[in-house]
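Progress narrative, Year 2. Work on Myelin protein zero like 3 from Astatotilapia calliptera advanced from sequence curation to structure prediction during this period.
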Amino acid sequence: MRRPLRRTSALNVVLLLYWLCCLAPSPVSSITVTTPPEVHASKGDTVTLSCSFTSTSRPTSRMTVDWSYRPQSGGPPMMFLHFSSRAYPPTEGQFGGRIRWQGTPARGDASISLINATLNDNGTFTCTVRNPPDVHGSTTSHTVLTVTPRVPSIRFSDVAVLLFFILLPSAVITLILIGRMMCPKKERNQSKAHRSPIEVTEGDEYGIPGYTHKEDRAKCRDLYVMDSDEEYYLKDFKKRPPEAEGYADSHC
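Result:
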């Protein structure tokens, strides 16, 4: 009677283990999505929003990728790109025509690029990847995009052109001014070099404008008498007859 009991107990143990294995939850596969926490760009740049994922299951046609955006000012997130076997970028709205799919799901890449970034694009971008049966784990990741105004940059070629058009005319004008300043001095020096130290310009001897050499033939006694009455003397001298001049010369 003992042998049948042993066989029955052993059978019960096997059945119990079988039921435990069937009823126990099977291990669930997981997926991990990773994105950079922050991305900085200037206005007008093309920005790459990276998104990579690792999955225990090979990506299949059932894998999906969703990109959403939440403005910096707040509000509900807005999905703007969906991938399922192929990408469906937005054709209208804030990102219409400015999103390009750059991902390769077979390599665990779900990245996109944003063309012509604007200040209104500042906000949080979220990448969500699902690859059944990997539906658990970290399926989403967030990236904060900061777009700043572009700082004007000056290239070397621009600086060279500006210097050429500024310095060249300035140099030419400077040379012309220096030449005009030097030439009059040379002319004056040459004229002074040819004059005798005792040479006196006509009319400068008595300081009387319009005084000619003919009036130098006055009497000897009149050369030292000219004073405040010289104007009267000149008038009287002009009225004398020609023979008076010879008389004066004979007395000298």
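The mean pLDDT is 75. The longest strand covers residues 140-148.
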